[in-house]
Write a structure and sequence with these properties.
five-stranded antiparallel beta sheet
Length: 340
């Protein structure tokens, strides 16, 4: 019996060490799992907030277009001065950060082109011309675009209906009577060497002042479009500028294919270079078009993570286990010495 107790005492330090390390491992695993769940929840909340911010801002801009449609619905004739006064009241750059402009494009038959050019020159645009000059069944000339800065001046007279990507959005807006977003384009306003990706929002204006009931009527009654061009970098900087301490990077693609030619927004390279703990792809609908959001966590999310406590628990437990095992071993040796 004494020999058995002696054998048990001999293995007691190892039992203490194994038991302590096992308890430490379980505690560290629980702490790591809990922290990981909290990080995942924090990331998902940030993803949801990002989606909401983008959708709410674009919804605000479509509402802005509807206000412009109301201007034309309430008047038989809207002059360039009327339009300037209306847009001045909106305070675009102060109240709607990220928007490049607010404009109106008119639909013309070929025989109306000369008269429009004369009227626009009478209203102060002495060099007004519709471009491109190629003959076509109908024209859609930009005649109003505010604020009239150097970028927007470059777009006056341009017929967006002649460009395929813009035309698809304009036809969808015309046929549905609803706001329509274009695909990724390079705006006519990109007059500097450093160019941004862009897109446009269109809202149709009908001569009937209301949206006609049938497709054929909507196509025949089209008067023009209220529209806004957007430089993508400026837009997303305006959306996210209040969130400097964001814990995610966001890539925005036009459409469902994550290809470089569809990229609207790319995070700053210094932020995007770090590996991400979490990453997801979400799709949102913007004025009848799908955008894909690639959202990845930043290192700042890990900095606030509680997962570091798991390491502290592990180190403390291992150290404590070794100390306890050492003390137990010393007691066993002392007992053996006394017994001898």
């Amino acid at each position: 019996m004494a020999n058995r107790l002696t054998q048990l005492h001999r293995f007691l330090p190892y039992i203490v060490l194994v038991g302590t390390l096992s308890l430490t491992s379980l505690s560290a695993y629980y702490a790591e799992t809990t922290a990981r769940s909290k990080d995942q929840l924090r990331f998902e909340n940030e993803v949801q907030r990002t989606e909401t911010e983008i959708q709410q801002r674009l919804s605000t801009y479509t509402t802005l277009l509807r206000s412009g449609a109301g201007l034309f619905a309430g008047s038989e004739t809207v002059t360039r001065q009327d339009f300037q006064n209306f847009v001045a009241q909106l305070k675009l750059r102060e109240q709607y950060p990220g928007i490049q402009g607010f404009g109106y494009t008119i639909r013309l038959r070929p025989e109306q082109v000369t008269g429009l050019m004369a009227e626009m020159r009478r209203q102060g645009l002495s060099t007004f011309n519709i471009r491109p000059p190629t003959p076509r069944p109908e024209y859609h000339a930009i005649i109003y675009l505010e604020p009239m800065d150097r970028r927007n001046q470059a777009a006056i007279g341009y017929d967006m209906f002649t460009e395929a990507t813009r035309r698809v959005a304009m036809e969808r807006a015309r046929d549905t009577g609803q706001p329509a977003a274009s695909g990724r384009v390079t705006l006519v306003q990109e007059i500097d060497p450093q160019k941004q990706a862009g897109f446009l929002l269109y809202l149709p204006i009908y001569r009937s002042k209301t949206v006609p009931a049938t497709l054929a009527e909507r196509q025949s009654q089209l008067q023009g479009f209220i529209y806004s061009p957007f430089r993508a970098d400026d837009l997303f900087e305006g959306i996210f500028r209040q969130q400097r301490r964001r814990t995610v990077n966001v890539w925005v693609y036009d459409g469902t294919e994550l290809r470089s030619e569809n990229l609207l927004r790319y995070p700053h390279p210094s932020l995007a270079a770090h590996p991400s703990q979490f990453r997801t792809v979400r799709q949102i609908r913007v004025a009848g078009r799908i955008w894909s959001l690639v959202i990845a966590s930043r290192p700042s999310l890990e900095q606030v993570s509680e997962s570091r406590y798991a390491r502290y628990i592990l180190l403390t437990g291992v150290f404590g286990g070794l100390v306890l095992a050492g003390l137990t071993w010393a007691q066993v040796r002392a007992r053996q010495t006394i017994e001898r």
